[in-house]
Amino acid sequence: MNLRRALFAAFIAASVVATACGGAGTGGAKPAVIVGSTNFYEQLTLGELYSQILEANGYTVTRKFNLGNREIVEPAIESGQIDIDAEYLATLLAFVDKDGKIAKPTTDPKETQAGLQKALDPKGLTVLDYAAATDQNGFVVTQATASAKNLKKLSDLVPVAGTMVLGGPPECPTRPFCALGLKNVYGITFKDFKPLDTGGPLTITALEGKQIDVGLLFTSDPSIVAKNFVLLDDDKHLQLADNIAPVVRNALLQKDDGTIKRLLNSISAKLTQGELNDMNKQVAVDKADSKVVAAAWLKKQGLIK
Amino acid sequence: MSLLGDVARWFADPEHWQGPHGIPVRILEHIELSALAVAVALVIAAPIALYLGHTGRGGFIAINVANIGRALPSLALLALGLVIAISLGLGLGFWPTVFALVPLAIPPILTNSYVAIREVDRDIVDAARGMGLSEAQILRSIEVPLGLPLMLAGVRTAAVNVVATATLGALVAGGALGRFIVDGLALQEYDQLMAGALLVALLAVVTEVSFGALERATVAPGMAAIR
Q: For residues A232 and A141, what is the distance between their CA atoms, to the nearest angstrom?
């Protein structure tokens, strides 16, 4: 079944390449699209965003969500079991090019995207425009701490960190994207470090209970909105660029007249960190249906009617 | 072999003996945590055991109920303790761990204390009653002193269990010696992990030996002569 589909896709791709002379946009029927996702709330919402904008523009979309982790979803898009999924630039690059022979992820999203595209080329995949929204290590403080110490970005911590306690996963002090990086890149040294969990309930509770002043959470963690935490801006770019971007099979893009690309890019253009976190909070904390949340957001942004 | 060398080097590093995260502080934290858990268990279990032992009623049921404490996984209690401590505003670490350890310490204390009182020679108790001692006096001056070594044996078992299990506290951001084990695992620093495990084992042995000495010291003078 899968083999037959792969052969069929290869046949279509080959015939398109063989007959196309002057672009693939031959008009007519819009290709059927399969949107996939991994297995956590943010991915379901992103999958809905992509699916619904395509449906609103006349595409027939099949949803294959909750497939599992990247180890399952990435091979699925490579082999054509899905056509589109939402990915994270730096993490995907590190995944498809494990030893960094083609390109290494950096803290710059543009550079990372270019490197990722190079790594995806032989796989017949294209990474479209990335969003401002990321899902990467982030350092947060409570609203009270932010106001009292006037904190907006990580460099604001430099003069005050000596009186503050950082909380994060036990390995944080020795990791370049955690306390070690804060010290080397920003020159931030905390009074103490409290070993907790990796962006989980312990860190959130410790922040609320003032047992720590600064905590490591993921930048799209729903509790940032739910608990009114302040995510400090990574102004010196310590973290690798894990911006969110759609990844699409070339085979699909070749069958299409460029509309899919334009539609997906229009989502990335509007998807800021705040917008993403707000949707994540609605789905993960308020238990709203990701379908409803995605539809409301697309309407609010004027992307669908 | 190389791991043993690494562990020895870890212990030899003076940095690991200093500051708020050093070995002495972690040992004190561990003792504090364990002592409180055993003390709470003692306050709960001892009065029940003394009453039941003295009256000779309901002991079977009480011991079996208490034994549920042995069957409940400490890890599950820790998670439950975390939720309760957070809702009460007690924070992470210390109190959730105490909550997980107390049910572990109750069964040996309850069982041993009950048996200790029950096993006091009934002739002695009857003689005391015949001499006009009140029930409270019998308990206080006859049954407890004679049963004390056996009661302490229960406390010893509880304390050793608690010392070994208090390492779980590090999973909920607690201090104590479990920190070395959990952090060692997270950092893949197996020398630190092994050192933590050795320290816990050592503390458990010291606990065992200390209570053993205490038991021998508390044998009533008359009983010691019989032995």
A: 8
